Structure formats: structure tokens, C-alpha cells
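Tutorial handout. Part one gives the primary structure; part two gives the three-dimensional structure as C-alpha cells.
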Amino acid sequence: MTKVLYPGSFDPITKGHMNIIEQASDLFDEVVVTVMQNPSKKEGMFTLEERMEIIKELYHRMNNIKVIAATGAAVDVAMLNECKAIIRGLRSLSDYDYEVQLQQINKEISNNKVNTVCLFADKEYQFVSSSMVKEVFKLDKDISNYVDPVVQNQMIKKRDEVYGRS
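Part two.
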């Protein structure tokens, strides 16, 4: 059984993330979607638990997708969960440069036990990022091309909770 880890902050999960998850689920026996807190980013829109619940709701019908939360290095989480590889999504050349460095470090840390597999998002999602989605959302613009309706509804609900709208 080939199990892979797809780590990310997923705050929020976008159609680009979902595209990568679905590609990986077609290629591998199990995809462990791992919701992580990025220490270099400030407080997110959703808590770790909320992000996990949203992703679980999106994939509740897919038996080969597991959702967990984790802290620390993704390579350690991969080894702990017996994953053969870490999935990374690529959007641009700048992503590639960063991912090459990361995969080399992860391979060294894991004593060559964990590989990195890069997947390209379909062209309509190559410009989509969580930070872009949040920015567009804060401007009260339509985000339906970038996130699933489940995600959009949770974002609206969260905004209404924060700002007391009904």
C-alpha cells in the first residue's frame, strides 16, 4: 500500500488544493491530508480543528483520503504515519525552486525514506492561493471560482461570527 502525506495550512482549502488531493488520490492508495499551522504566518481565519472538519466534510465519501492535524516538520509526520512520500503542489517556477530545496532537506532528514512528489494544479487553479482567496473575500467579492461551496459557506459563517452579522 502506497501512502502519501499532503501537508498544508489549508486556511482555507482552495480548489487548487482539492485538485492536488484528487490527483494524488488517483495515483496512490491513501492520501493523508495533514492540516498544519504555518509558524511563519499570523493567526489564520480558521482554527486547526475547523480546517480539519471542513476537509473531512469535503472528502467524507472518499475512502482513501484521511485527514489529520499535526505540528512540527512534515517529514517527521510522514515517517510517523508510514508515508512513502510527501505531496507538494506546484503553481509556478518560484514554487519549484523552493520545493527542490525542501525535498533535499526532507530526504536527508528521513535518511532517504521519504521522497517528494510534485503535482501540478490544473491550469485554472495555478494562480489560486489561500491568501489570495482571503484577500478577495475581505473585499466582498465572489470567491466561488476558487473554493468549494462548503468552504465559502464556512467563510461567510466565520465572518458573520466575527463581525456580528446575521
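Part three, for discussion. The mean pLDDT is 93. DSSP finds six helices and five strands in the chain.
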